[in-house]
Amino acid sequence: MNYASPTYVEETRIGFHFLRSHTWQHHVLRVAINDLKRLIGEPLPQGGTLLDTGCGQGKSFRLLRDAFQPVRMLGLDADPHSLSLSEAEAAREGIRVELLTADCAEIPLPDSSVDIVFCHQTFHHLVEQERALAEFWRVLKPGGWLLFAESTKAYIDTWVIRWFFRHPMHVQKSADEYLNMLRGQGFAFGPRNVSFPYLWWSRSKDFGLLERWGLRAPPPPGQREETLVNAAVRKPAHD
Fold first, then answer.
1. CA-CA distance, 37 to 45, in Å (whole number)?
2. I need a labelling partner for 21 at 20 to 30 A (CA). Which of 30, 81, 233, 238 fits?
3. Are residues 42 and 62 in contact, defined by beta-carbon separation less than 8 angstroms?
4. Keyword Transmembrane helix: yes or no (predicted)?
5. What are phi and psi of 60, to 5 degrees?
6. pLDDT tens digits, one per residue of 98-127
7. The pTM is what?
């Protein structure tokens, strides 16, 4: 397979099939998009151009269309096979999407051409994270939104995830490190634009079973190592 990124880390067969599952679409994607909508606040941005970076097999397209009603939707991925499945998914849903076989570190779009960049569970797959974030900044219009939802090192660096999935382990970061990257690039956001979901699937040591059985309460924020971070951040608008 010829990937569009020279640093692409190929997913396992199990991982590839998981990304088309009901669990992925309804317990991961849908939950993240609903949370990101809450972090943006009202009114939600509508219309314009939306870029889904690392769109995978296209399971996000309908959810993003319904939430933001973009005039133009683009899906970008480095894996041509995933994009062929994205094309089929868009056809099934009756959604018009322009698909780009490209690297997040080198996005083939003009400066200031996108209103929303959606980056869901993509960043921890990227080796050239700083370059990718700079590209998100470049293609966003002033005032545009980056919707960022990520798993942290505390989740990725567990035996279950290491066993079944494949990631570039040397670039994995904590929630605070991801937020510092966003700030360092220049994105503007406050506490109300950030959340730390503590979802059952993100706790691969026990998948929250002890809490579901009533044997213990989940540790509160500040007393746990965060496994997920969601942030709705904005490229400042300039006069």
1. 9
2. 233
3. no
4. no
5. -85, -15
6. 999 999 999 999 999 999 999 999 999 999
7. 0.94
